[in-house]
């Protein structure tokens, strides 16, 4: 009889039935004098005792701002130590942290603020050359949210001072009302249609996922984890921060955004034992002209996720960066995020060709997308995940939630194959999402925006292969008759209005699109044509 593509992560280690605040308190009691958080470019350091005191101060300030249990608090900032304080403070008061992509432009920002009805927004003054303050002022006349705004560097000290009016007893009284199944985080994730959807996650979802990621990485209080990946994404705030606090490890943040030499310098100077990144980050470090100047002897493990890793890159990471126990993770925001992970002792070929095996306390199955039947091992189908990690739902979108979660199973939209040992290989996507350097991009969002250009009658956006990022964004544009548009005009139209990563790199201007006999756009054929033509003059690159 054929073995079916189903696997259950049986475990003798129980799930943690506590809130994030309770988990942090427990770690502080055990490891209070150990270093908890280092933010290199801000020259910030804190032990667990100090972190707890500062988190409490921020939590009291949230109460002083009249933040109620279940209110949404947005954080719009690159990686800073204040981001971490807000993450744990919102958990302690029962507010739902809405993590906003630092790369968001006007359209994306306004949508997120309105859709989640953000009560209080804590924002950096700027990110690189983008002024957040100016963007917020621009949308204010047409957007009632956020109801309150705190700009870091300008309002932070005043915000903290307001919390002095709140007693510890008042904060603890709020904490007594919290349950571990309460929603605690909304993360906007690009789907295949329309605007991003807000995956709503609970304490139980993300705390346990972080804990078991750390368990498989064999984290202890001795570990120092270098986190150059963004906090707004599960990679930073769950695989990074929560995996650390659940084990008394130290969170080491190199800077506000990824810069390869800063990461390598941080690993050496902070004696990091673990390093995170998407494959393109590791490639940038390995290819850096100063790579050989740095000492990686302290490294032991780490996480590579976001897209498939070339075997040569994995080999170099193990040999040249001393990360013999590096693991590969697979998941999605809707599953908190990790569903499968390679173990630290998995063979090299398994770490490169697969995304590991099922996580503890979770189930995965691979089904025929048409019939829903579980397929035999070795056959491809849609990967589904069930268990504690599956999100509560999409914020304010019951129909989208019902479509994604069926009988408790999260349908990922990814095509996968499971081998006889239970290792899972991702082989494609049912969904049309473009994954560029680990960032999920919805073609429909870009299409709807480009359709607002007066010279465009129709547009289709696809992902095309790219050696550096895995995929790049490409737009096929059908211009309006009698109007002339070109790539530079279209790119200029996008600049400042949609996130930079969403602006197509490649443009193709056409009179029609490949169609099926029933009139559906054949994006598969478009990708095939574009891949062949990338080096020809038919494609304009900007």
Q: What's the arrangement of secondary structure elements?
A:
Elements: E1 6-8, H1 20-31, E2 35-39, E3 44-47, H2 48-64, E4 72-76, H3 81-93, E5 96-100, H4 106-115, E6 120-123, E7 126-127, E8 130-131, H5 132-139, E9 148-151, H6 156-162, H7 168-175, E10 183-189, E11 197-202, H8 203-216, E12 224-226, H9 234-245, E13 250-253, H10 260-270, E14 274-277, H11 279-286, E15 301-304, H12 311-320, E16 325-331, E17 338-341, H13 348-353, E18 357-358, E19 362-367, E20 381-387, E21 393-394, H14 398-404, E22 405-406, E23 409-418, E24 424-429, E25 434-436, E26 439-441, H15 443-450, E27 456-466, E28 470-479, H16 487-494, E29 506-509, H17 523-533, E30 540-541
Parallel strand pairs: 2-13, 4-5, 4-6, 5-10, 6-9, 12-13, 12-14, 14-15, 15-16, 28-29
Antiparallel strand pairs: 1-19, 2-3, 7-8, 10-11, 11-21, 16-17, 17-18, 19-20, 20-23, 22-23, 23-24, 25-26, 27-28, 29-30
Helix pairs in contact: 1-3, 2-3, 2-6, 8-9, 10-11, 11-12
The fraction of residues in strands falls at: 25-35%
**How many β-strands, per DSSP?**
30
Which secondary-structure class do the elements indicate? alpha/beta
**Total number of helices:** 17
Distance between the termini: 54 Å
Q: What is the radius of gyration?
A: 23 Å
What share of residues is helical? Answer: 25-40%
The parts where pLDDT drops under 50 for at least 5 residues are: none
Overall pLDDT confidence: 93
Shape: globular
How is the largest sheet built, in terms of strand order?
A: 3-2-13-12-14-15-16-17-18
Largest sheet: 9 strands, mixed
């Amino acid at each position: 009889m054929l073995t079916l593509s189903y696997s259950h992560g049986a475990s003798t280690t129980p799930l943690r039935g506590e809130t994030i605040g309770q988990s942090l308190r427990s770690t502080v009691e055990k490891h209070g004098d150990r270093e908890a958080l280092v933010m290199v470019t801000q020259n910030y350091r804190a032990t667990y005792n100090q972190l707890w005191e500062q988190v409490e101060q921020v939590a009291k300030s949230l109460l002083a701002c009249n933040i109620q249990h279940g209110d949404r608090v947005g954080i719009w900032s690159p990686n800073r130590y204040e981001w971490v304080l807000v993450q744990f403070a919102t958990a302690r008061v029962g507010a739902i942290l809405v993590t906003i992509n630092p790369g968001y432009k006007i359209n994306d920002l306004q949508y997120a603020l309105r859709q989640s009805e953000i009560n209080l927004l804590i924002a950096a003054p700027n990110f690189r050359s983008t002024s957040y303050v100016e963007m917020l002022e621009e949308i204010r006349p047409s957007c009632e949210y956020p109801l309150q705004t705190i700009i870091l560097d300008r309002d932070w000290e005043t915000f903290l001072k307001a919390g002095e009016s709140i007693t510890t007893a008042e904060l603890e009284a709020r904490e007594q009302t919290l349950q571990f199944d309460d929603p605690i985080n909304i993360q906007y994730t690009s789907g295949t249609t329309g605007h991003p959807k807000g995956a709503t996650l609970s304490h139980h979802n993300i705390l346990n996922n972080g804990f078991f990621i750390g368990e498989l990485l064999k984290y202890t209080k001795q570990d120092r984890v270098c986190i150059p990946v963004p906090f707004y994404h599960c990679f930073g705030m769950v695989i990074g921060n929560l995996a650390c606090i659940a084990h008394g490890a130290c969170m080491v943040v190199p800077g506000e955004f990824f810069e390869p030499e800063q990461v390598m310098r941080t690993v050496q100077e902070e004696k990091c034992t673990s390093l995170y990144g998407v494959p393109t980050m590791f490639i940038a470090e390995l290819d850096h002209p100063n790579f050989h100047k740095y000492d990686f002897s302290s490294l032991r493990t780490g996480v590579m996720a976001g897209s498939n890793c070339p075997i040569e890159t994995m080999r170099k990471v193990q040999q040249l960066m001393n990360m013999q126990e590096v693991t590969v993770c697979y998941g999605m925001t809707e599953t908190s995020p990790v569903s499968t992970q390679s173990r630290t002792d998995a063979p090299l070929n398994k770490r490169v060709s697969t995304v590991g095996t099922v996580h503890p306390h979770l189930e995965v199955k691979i089904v025929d997308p048409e019939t829903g039947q579980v397929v035999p091992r070795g056959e491809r189908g849609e990967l589904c995940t069930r268990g504690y990690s599956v999100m509560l739902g999409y914020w304010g979108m019951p129909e989208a939630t019902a479509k994604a979660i069926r009988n408790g199973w999260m349908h990922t939209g990814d095509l996968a194959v499971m081998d006889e040992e239970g290792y899972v290989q991702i082989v494609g996507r049912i969904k049309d999402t473009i994954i560029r350097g680990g960032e999920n991009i919805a073609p429909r969002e870009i299409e709807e925006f480009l359709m607002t250009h007066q010279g465009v009658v129709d547009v289709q956006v696809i992902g095309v292969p790219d050696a550096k990022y895995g995929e790049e964004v490409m737009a096929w544009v059908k211009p309006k008759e009698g109007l002339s548009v070109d790539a530079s005009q279209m790119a200029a139209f996008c600049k400042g209005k949609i996130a930079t990563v969403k602006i197509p790199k490649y443009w193709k201007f056409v009179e029609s699109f490949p169609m099926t006999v029933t009139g559906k756009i054949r994006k598969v054929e478009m990708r095939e044509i574009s891949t062949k033509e990338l080096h020809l003059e038919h494609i304009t690159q900007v």
